[in-house]
Specification:
With 98 residues, the chain is of the alpha+beta class. The chain is built from 4 helices and 4 strands.
């Protein structure tokens, strides 16, 4: 598996979904993220990080609650928010970062 730093270091925005299997709101985010990916296609990369399996990474990015969405551009964090967001909010945030 590639290193996280390599994955987030892209020219296109990379949206990271820090989630947990047991988290109800995280399950609600899945179809929203799928819709966002279908809308933006290659303009965004979306990856999911299970905080229970990747505690070091979650700790490094100070993820205190799930879901936490973090948007990276060229390896730098440009936006983050915890909780469920709607598709249009996410589309707007990602396109502004593009």
């Amino acid at each position: 598996m590639r290193k996280f730093s390599e994955i987030i270091n892209k020219d296109i925005p990379v949206l990271v979904d820090f989630y947990a299997e047991w988290c109800g709101p995280c399950k609600a985010m899945s179809p929203i993220l799928k819709d966002v990916k279908e809308s933006l296609k290659d303009q965004v990369s979306i990856i999911k990080i299970d905080v229970d399996k990747n505690q070091t990474l979650a700790s490094k990015y100070q993820v205190k609650g799930v879901p936490t969405l973090v948007l990276f551009k060229n390896g730098k964090q440009v936006w983050r928010q915890s909780g469920v967001l709607q598709k249009n909010e996410l589309l707007s945030i990602i396109t502004q970062a593009s």
